[in-house]
Amino acid sequence: MQRMTLDEALATLRRMLKESEYCFFLTHGEGGEIQARLMQPFSPEPDFTLWFGAAPNSRKVQEVKKNANGTISIMNPKNAGYASFVGALTIVNDPDKKAHYWRADWTDLYPGGPDADDYVLIKFTPSRIEMMDFFNETQGRPYALKPVGLEKSGSGWRLIEDVSKL
Length: 166
Prior knowledge:
alpha+beta, eight-stranded antiparallel sheet, Pnp Oxidase, Chain A
């Protein structure tokens, strides 16, 4: 079975993120249950770090403060694909970052703008990614419905050869 190369997998993942305006942002709730909500990330950094705006008193921010492990999942209905990112969440209140990661149409949500105390950022740093994209046949042939896995390796990514470890 021929699998994608690392470069092909990274390019496919970048395309999928660009085509997916929203994602599911998953955290751990009070009782350990998984809490999911739909969110709109900013464009990813080259290493797939994602940034989100949030209210500091929101449930998601309180959950991140208690457990920094999170999952981000995207679905691309156009190409029947998905990607799930597992990684670490960090609350960021840096004024320069808040100004950089701001949407002009958010003034209804955060009336004070990016400088106000009612707006913080959540930084998501992925350590492992699982993806499947039928448009680019990430699962190989014959179709085995096996996803492509990537894991952080130093400052880059490497393919996970044994997908049973995903």
